[in-house]
Structures are given as structure tokens and as C-alpha cells.
User: Which sequence fits this backbone?
């Protein structure tokens, strides 16, 4: 103890000396605990200053790669950015697996989500004594990308199509991860993926075009709340481009994101994204230019080349020597990194506030209970014609391809145990339940040889061959996942068949891996035979030129990849009908529970969008057959995205939706189906009736294309915010209170239940197109039968602001606003009006310098990068492309058009009233050699006066950045 007190006295002396400006003169050992950066009593910035001053330039540069090496002379351990923790700690072994992110958001319960985040943060800390490979305290979660399009392959990772709901849930999860004290971090969450990343196909080369209102009102608002609340410690830049510029060099990383907080942020790139700048994106000619630009834009840590930091550090050193970077640029990024490491307690005695957490927290009883609660709250009751809740005294059958299995996704942890729907129902009933997966068992016989496709019987399986065997070794269970894709599970050992780059082997517990090599298609030919096509994801990669099929490639009949004309033709013999087996299981039972849905590695996932939102055809057929055999059929849909349910939605008496909800899925479903829990999850996305209700997945302009519940005018299958209950609720009138509105809610049923009270607003009149409804507040409230509670929902006048493109600022317009409270966006129970005294947007003044991107409407226009460093311009995609600038005051007359143009030669016309209205001036442009070289052109105007809509009409290939009419 004397030694400890002595060290404390030394630390205090050094701290006082540092504060006095004399810290650099205090001698100390290399790893001396007296170094000020190791003093937890000093402010974070003082500790960072001290540590930064002790590092060499090479050491500072070494901090800018994902894998930061140890610095032994200072006693500093290695550090890694990027432990995945989307709905539990991933890729480190068995940990608590909570519902997928879309499921967490479906709870509409921020307090629960904060608890989940805290549990995940604890489990991340639980590994800190062992520090396994891949572990770190910089967590890559949550995902704040808006679920604008349900076909996005990563829909499971996001929270909602609404920015307010996304912001509140991500803030809750992030607060749990951080511990709630920005100066003492449990973990350091990085919010993904900045910005407008909602398509996977060609994600590294497609540009998400964001007009200013969409950028400010929609996409940025999903990220801002967590950063503003210090619930995230940085952002990850996404692969895609925004307005023609890769997000890896998006200047908003500095210019916008860092303005949302006073804390230092650690911004990282997505994996391999720096290399894309000179690779697929061809945005820069050299890594030196690219990484200098990324650092200046606001990137602090480069995720590239796996553990090899050499290319990154070499590029940064080259940029320093060539003058593209200064040492101060490196210092800035290194400071951001060190600030996070200091706040994590890395340099505190004992690891700081959270340093004592150990592996006992991982999959603890408390976390198991929390996982069950989260899975229960996440489920959404879509339909109930009195079939639910079920009676525990009755008999049941549980059928369907997901009835007795749990699947994990790419960012899941490993399940410590699995309670399947069948397990949960049997535990609830205290007896066994009849069951069937409802899938066909088939044998494939080569019509040319008469031999069967045969798999190995051992646990490790064996390469598929054609043999004369016709027993279990030659039989496969066929799971249909839609779009023609099936998986084959060997009856010989219960393992899935997959390609291992050499052979097809039955050795996988479930479809998995980056390329998901367990996918096949059975292609029926005109003669009734089938070709077996390998459909692993890599067949879509650019280097794989042709579809590939299976056929014998060796004398012993081993199957391999062959061209279509060499493929074996097989008969498909049905050994056992899945539908017949399921029908037999449900006949005579009091209830039939059918569990259908998706396989997360197959039905869309990272790098692969969905083209089909329906259930697989064989799954729909299974439900229909079961319903006919037993009208008391309840359907559970287990997937990660809105589904076009077709006739199924009309015909079955009850529908319950859940995401893939982790280890406690079965217990949660049983609690809900049998009434021990009352469903209260709510949809966080619009469920459309058909893919035809949606525009292109690459259309990011939700305002013009009427996307999401905010602007969609059609009739959805299920609206945003929707979800049923086993009880009923009555709403009183809305009352204005000091900080918003209050409404009484009464449980008028016989069961306790939760209601999610949702407040929406609508601006009746505006200069600009406004959302039909917009969520501004919500609260999940628990009510006993007959109980009434008053729910207060905050709403300030400033919450009604929108982005004024005429002056590039937030404004609240004077006028009347509808304030609505209800059970969903389409189920409004109480409403009132609010008169707000704000401001009136004046007519446009185009005599001031106007950015072309600040249009009111457009046609055949693309948003592009004005320069590689900053700015947005517009580019004409066709002759006659136009921009509208509404309600412009030209006064007594503007006489001259001045515009900055680049790109192809052509004309810029000024017309009044419409794109074909009166022509008042034409500028002729000779073109420039580079799209980034702008020339100022002028043209006289005649008759450009009064108050009117002004249209600029552009020739194809013309780029316009700014203009004036004077």
C-alpha cells in the first residue's frame, strides 16, 4: 500500500507540473505510470496532449490504420477498430444473440434498447482479459441507414424508414454501449454507414443523389441524434458515392458530422473502401492522393488490407513528403484516435471504470432473460381473427421450414443455445407437438447413367458423387427460399451441401459465409429433366463469366462444375412429400402453427439486394395446404424485411411477424401465441402490396418519387407504425401542455397490454412539398385492464422546421399544422390543430449567387461533384433537362445571366413559367476539357421580369454549379 500511495503522489506532482506548463520537463520511465496521459484525474484533452507529444511521427501514423500496433516504450498495447456488435457481439464465439436490428426497433421501446446496448457493451468488455483475435472496444454499431427501400439486402441491419425513429433507437442502443458517460466509455460505438447507403448492387460505384432537402431533412437526421447525444463516438463512411463523390472522401465527415458534438470523434472507413478510391471508383490516380484526401475529409482510421497496415502508412508518408499532407493533419487524426482510447480507460489504473468486467457477463442469466424480453417485444401481430391467443390445453402441430431451427445472419454472434419455435411451444404445453419441416425429400438420378447423386454419411460429409446407392445417402431435403434458389440438406448426415472451391460436400450446419456457397437452382428442362445449377453468390461476381452446372468430372463420378452443355440431366424423384407430411401432422390438432420466412444468408444480405419480397412459392403452397387441412392455422413469418404476402394475408386467421430474433426466439413466440405476453411490436417500415409500388432502388429522392410513409399515396398492405394487440385501447382528446401534448389512453379490454402511442404532424400549407404525416414523438405505455394513463409527447415549434432551399437554412413556416395521435400512421385516434407563428419564405432572389442544386423541381438531372474536394453541381442527362426555381421575384427586370459551367459544349436557356415557356435568354458554352474546370459564361436577358417560376433548360452533358440573374 505504501508503494501505491507513493505512485499517487508522483502522479499528482506530474499533473500539477503539466497544468503549470512544465510537464515536458518532468523525467519519467518509458512506461512510467506518472506520465500525465495515465492520470485519470486530468481532463481528457490534457491527457491526449501529453500522449501525442510523446509519439514519434511514425508512431502517430501507425495509429491511422485499423490495426494499431503496440508502442512498447510507452507501455501501450495494440488497439483495433471494428468489433461487430449489431445485435450482440459477433465473430468472437458464443455470446448473447438479441433480435436483429430491425426487430429491436420494432419494439418502439428505447429504454429496453438501452438495456440491450448495455448488455452488448458488457459482453464486449467481457473479452478484455483474453483479448481474442478480432476483439476490440471500438464497436461497429449501430446502423442508422434509413430503410427507404425494403429490397435493400441489409434491411435487417437498420431500424426504420423514418429518421426520427431511427435516431431515437440508435441513440438508445449507442447510449447502452457507451455506458452513458462520454468521458468514461464502456465501449466506443461507431455508427454506420455514412451516408445514404441503401442499395447493395454495385454499391461501390453507384451514386446516391441527395437534393438538399432529402440530405438535410432525411438522411442526415438519422445520424445526427446519436452523435449529438454522445451515444456514438464516430461514423463509418459507406462504400457508395453521394452526388458523385465517394463517401470515403465526403467533406461532411468534418464539415457536418463534427459540428454535431463537442467531443472528438473517431471516423473510420468501411473495409477495403480506401482501395476503391483508386480501384473500382477510379476517383484518384494514386493511393497517396486518395488517402491524403480521405484524411483531410475527416477519416481518422483506414480499414484496408486486413492486418497489413503497410500500404496505408506508406501512402500517408508519401503524402507528407509530397506536400499533400502536413504533420498537423496526422496529428488531428491521431488526436481523435487517442481521445477515444483515453476515454475507454485504456491508460487508467486497472483499465478504468469498466476494467473489471470479465467473461462471466457473457450469456449470463440476466442477458438470457433480456434476450427473451427483447424477442417478445419485437414481434408484430399483423392479423388476428380471434385465433389468438391459443389455449394451452389444446393440441398443436408446428410445421414449416423454420419450425425447428434458428438461423443466424452475417453479423450475428454464435448462438450459445437455440430455443426453436417447436421447442418453445412444447415447453409451453408441457408435451410434444407434432412437427414437420414441410419440405420435399428428393433423389436425383442421372438419366444418362442411372446413378444417383450421393453424399457422405459422416459428420464431415464427403464430396458428392454419382453412385448406384439409392438409400439415405442419395436423398436430400430441398428448402425453397424463393427466386428459384434452393438449399440441399443431405439425409445422410443432416448437413447442407456447399461448394468448397474444389468439390461439393455435405458438411455445413447452415448456409453461411461471404459467398454463401450452399445455393442451387433446379432448372426444369422441356423434357421434364432437371439441371442442377450452382447459384453461390460468387457466380454474380464480374470475374465469373458464365452460369455453372453440376456434372461428373472424374471417372469415379465425383461432381464438379461444368458448362451447361456438359451438365448432367437428372430426374427429380420425390421420396417424401413435404406438404403431405405437414398436412398429416396438423390434421385433428386444435391448432396448426406454420413457421415460414427467410434464410438470412440467402434472401438478401450484404452485397446482394432482393428482387423478390414475396414468400418462396413452396412456402406459400405449404401454408395453403395446411390451412385447408386445418382451418385453425396460425402463420408466423420469420424474416427481416416487409413481405408481399399475397393471398395468404387474406386467407389465414392469424399472422405474427418476427425478425430472426436470436436464441430465445421459440420462448418469445410461445409466450405470444399462448397469451403469456401480449404482442405490442409495431412496424417500422411500410409494407407494400407489390414490388411495382416501388421505383428503382437507386432513386433516393423520396420527395419526388413519393417514397416511404412520409410521401407514399397508395394503399399499403400494412402501414408504418402498425401492429395489433390482444386488448383494445381508447384515446381521449389531445391537450396542449407546456412541452408538447398530452393524451389519455385507456385499456378497454380484459388483458394487460402495451400501446405504442404515436404523434404525427402535417403542415397544411407550405411553399414546399411536405410529408403527408411525419412522426415527431412516441411512447410505449403499459396498461392493465381498465387502467388509464396520461401520455405526454414532446413537441416544440422548432421540431416543425424544414430545409429552405431558397436560403439554405432551417425555417419554421407560419401557418396551421395538424397534430395527430394514434396507433399507427393510418390509425389516428385524436387530432388537433396548431397555429405557429414562424416566418414566410420570401420569393426567390436569383440576383444573389444561387447554387444550382437548390432547385425546387427537375427533370433529367443528376447531382454530381462540383470538385473532388467539395460542392455539388447538376449535370444534364439529356437535352432539354431542366431545373425549376419556383416563385422568383425578378422585379423590373433582370438583364444578364451569369453561370459557371463545365463539361460538354451546349446551351443554357432561361425560360419563364414552364420548361417550354417564354425564352428570355440563351447562354452558349464551348465546353471544358475536365468536368471539374468551370468557366463563367454570360448571356443577355430580354423580358425577364415580374414574379414567376424560372426554368433553366440544359443541353446534355452540361454541368452547372452556380448562377445569377441580374
Assistant:
Amino acid at each position: 500500500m505504501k508503494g501505491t500511495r507513493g505512485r499517487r503522489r508522483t502522479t499528482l506532482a506530474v499533473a500539477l507540473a503539466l497544468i503549470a506548463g512544465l510537464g515536458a520537463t518532468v523525467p519519467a520511465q518509458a512506461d512510467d505510470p506518472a506520465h500525465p496521459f495515465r492520470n485519470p484525474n486530468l481532463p481528457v484533452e490534457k491527457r491526449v496532449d501529453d500522449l501525442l507529444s510523446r509519439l514519434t511521427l511514425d508512431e502517430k501514423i501507425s495509429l491511422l490504420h485499423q490495426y494499431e500496433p503496440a508502442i512498447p516504450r510507452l507501455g501501450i498495447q495494440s488497439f483495433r477498430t471494428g468489433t461487430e456488435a449489431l445485435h450482440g457481439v459477433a465473430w468472437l464465439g458464443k455470446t448473447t444473440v438479441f433480435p436483429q436490428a430491425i426487430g429491436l426497433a420494432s419494439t418502439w421501446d428505447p429504454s429496453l434498447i438501452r438495456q440491450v446496448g448495455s448488455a452488448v457493451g458488457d459482453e464486449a468488455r467481457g473479452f478484455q482479459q483474453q483479448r481474442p483475435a478480432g476483439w476490440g472496444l471500438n464497436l461497429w454499431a449501430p446502423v442508422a441507414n434509413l430503410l427507404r427501400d425494403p429490397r435493400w439486402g441489409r434491411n435487417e441491419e437498420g431500424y426504420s424508414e423514418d429518421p426520427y425513429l431511427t435516431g431515437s433507437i440508435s441513440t438508445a442502443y449507442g447510449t447502452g454501449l457507451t455506458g452513458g458517460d462520454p468521458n468514461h466509455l464502456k465501449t466506443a460505438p461507431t455508427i454506420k454507414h455514412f451516408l445514404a447507403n441503401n442499395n447493395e448492387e454495385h454499391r461501390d460505384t453507384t451514386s446516391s443523389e441527395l437534393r438538399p432537402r432529402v440530405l438535410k431533412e432525411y438522411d442526415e437526421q438519422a445520424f445526427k441524434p446519436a452523435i449529438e447525444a454522445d451515444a456514438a463516438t464516430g461514423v463509418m463512411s459507406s462504400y457508395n458515392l453521394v452526388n458523385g463523390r465517394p463517401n470515403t472522401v465526403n467533406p461532411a465527415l468534418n464539415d457536418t458530422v463534427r459540428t454535431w458534438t463537442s467531443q472528438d470523434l473517431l471516423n473510420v472507413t468501411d473495409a477495403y473502401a480506401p482501395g476503391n478510391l483508386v480501384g473500382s471508383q477510379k476517383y484518384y490516380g494514386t493511393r497517396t492522393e486518395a488517402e491524403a484526401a480521405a484524411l483531410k475529409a475527416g477519416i481518422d482510421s483506414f480499414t484496408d488490407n486486413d492486418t497489413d497496415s503497410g500500404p496505408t502508412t506508406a501512402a500517408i508518408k508519401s503524402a507528407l513528403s509530397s506536400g499533400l499532407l502536413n504533420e498537423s493533419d496526422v496529428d488531428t487524426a491521431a488526436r481523435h484516435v487517442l481521445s477515444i482510447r483515453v476515454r475507454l480507460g485504456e491508460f487508467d489504473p486497472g483499465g478504468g471504470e469498466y476494467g473489471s468486467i470479465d467473461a462471466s457477463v457473457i450469456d449470463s442469466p440476466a442477458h438470457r432473460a433480456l434476450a427473451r424480453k427483447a424477442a417478445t417485444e419485437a414481434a408484430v401481430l399483423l392479423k388476428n381473427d380471434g385465433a389468438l391467443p391459443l389455449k394451452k390445453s389444446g393440441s398443436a402441430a408446428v410445421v414449416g421450414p423454420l419450425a425447428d431451427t434458428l438461423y443466424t445472419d452475417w453479423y450475428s454472434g454464435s448462438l450459445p443455445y437455440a430455443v426453436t419455435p417447436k421447442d418453445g411451444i412444447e415447453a409451453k404445453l408441457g408435451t410434444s407437438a407434432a412437427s414437420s419441416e414441410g419440405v420435399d425429400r428428393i433423389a436425383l438420378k442421372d438419366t444418362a447413367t442411372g446413378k444417383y447423386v450421393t453424399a457422405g454419411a459422416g459428420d464431415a460429409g464427403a464430396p458428392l458423387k454419382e453412385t448406384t446407392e439409392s438409400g439415405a445417402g442419395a436423398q436430400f431435403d430441398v428448402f425453397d427460399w424463393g427466386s428459384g434458389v434452393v438449399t440441399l440438406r443431405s439425409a445422410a448426415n443432416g448437413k447442407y451441401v456447399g461448394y468448397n472451391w474444389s468439390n461439393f460436400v455435405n458438411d455445413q450446419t447452415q448456409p453461411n459465409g461471404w459467398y454463401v456457397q450452399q445455393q442451387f437452382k433446379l432448372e426444369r428442362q422441356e423434357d421434364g429433366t432437371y439441371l442442377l445449377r450452382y447459384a453461390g453468390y460468387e457466380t454474380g461476381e464480374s470475374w465469373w463469366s458464365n452460369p455453372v452446372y453440376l456434372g461428373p468430372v472424374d471417372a469415379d463420378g465425383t461432381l464438379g462444375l461444368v458448362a451447361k452443355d456438359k451438365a448432367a440431366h437428372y430426374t427429380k424423384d420425390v421420396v417424401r412429400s413435404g406438404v403431405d407430411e405437414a398436412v398429416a401432422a396438423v390434421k385433428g390438432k386444435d391448432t396448426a402453427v406454420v413457421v415460414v420466412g427467410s434464410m438470412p444468408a440467402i434472401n438478401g444480405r450484404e452485397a446482394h439486394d432482393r428482387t423478390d419480397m414475396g414468400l418462396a412459392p413452396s412456402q406459400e403452397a405449404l401454408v395453403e395446404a395446411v390451412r385447408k387441412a386445418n382451418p385453425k392455422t396460425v402463420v408466423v413469418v420469420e424474416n427481416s424485411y416487409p413481405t408481399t404476402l399475397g393471398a395468404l394475408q387474406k386467407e389465414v386467421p392469424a399472422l405474427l411477424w418476427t425478425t430472426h430474433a436470436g436464441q430465445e426466439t421459440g420462448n418469445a413466440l410461445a409466450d405470444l401465441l399462448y397469451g403469456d405476453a401480449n404482442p405490442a411490436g409495431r412496424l417500422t417500415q411500410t409494407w407494400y402490396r407489390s414490388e411495382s409500388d416501388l421505383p428503382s432502388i437507386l432513386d433516393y429522392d423520396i420527395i419526388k418519387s413519393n417514397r416511404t410513409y412520409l410521401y407514399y399515396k397508395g394503399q399499403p398492405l400494412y402501414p408504418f407504425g402498425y401492429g395489433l394487440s390482444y386488448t383494445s385501447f381508447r384515446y381521449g382528446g389531445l391537450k396542449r401542455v407546456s412541452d408538447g401534448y398530452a393524451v389519455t389512453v385507456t385499456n378497454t379490454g380484459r388483458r394487460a397490454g402495451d400501446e405504442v402511442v404515436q404523434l404525427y404532424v402535417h403542415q397544411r400549407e407550405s411553399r414546399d412539398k411536405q410529408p403527408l404525416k411525419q412522426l415527431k414523438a412516441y411512447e410505449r405505455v403499459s396498461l392493465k385492464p381498465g387502467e388509464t394513463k396520461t401520455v405526454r409527447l414532446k413537441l416544440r415549434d422548432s421540431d416543425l422546421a424544414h430545409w429552405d432551399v431558397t436560403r439554405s437554412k432551417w425555417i419554421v413556416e407560419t401557418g396551421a399544422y395538424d397534430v395527430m395521435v394514434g396507433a399507427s400512421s393510418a390509425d389516428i385516434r385524436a387530432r388537433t390543430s396548431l397555429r405557429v407563428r414562424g416566418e414566410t419564405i420570401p420569393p426567390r432572389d436569383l440576383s444573389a449567387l444561387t447554387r444550382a442544386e437548390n432547385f425546387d423541381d427537375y427533370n433529367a438531372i443528376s447531382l454530381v461533384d462540383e470538385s473532388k474536394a467539395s460542392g455539388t453541381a447538376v449535370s444534364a442527362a439529356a437535352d432539354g433537362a431542366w431545373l425549376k426555381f419556383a416563385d422568383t421575384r425578378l422585379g423590373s427586370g433582370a438583364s444578364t445571366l451569369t453561370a459557371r459551367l463545365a463539361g460538354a459544349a451546349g446551351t443554357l436557356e432561361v425560360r419563364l413559367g414552364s420548361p417550354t415557356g417564354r425564352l428570355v435568354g440563351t447562354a452558349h458554352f464551348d465546353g471544358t476539357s475536365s468536368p471539374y474546370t468551370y468557366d463563367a459564361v454570360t448571356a443577355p436577358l430580354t423580358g425577364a421580369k415580374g414574379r414567376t417560376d424560372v426554368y433553366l433548360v440544359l443541353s446534355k452533358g452540361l454541368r452547372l454549379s452556380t448562377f445569377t440573374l441580374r
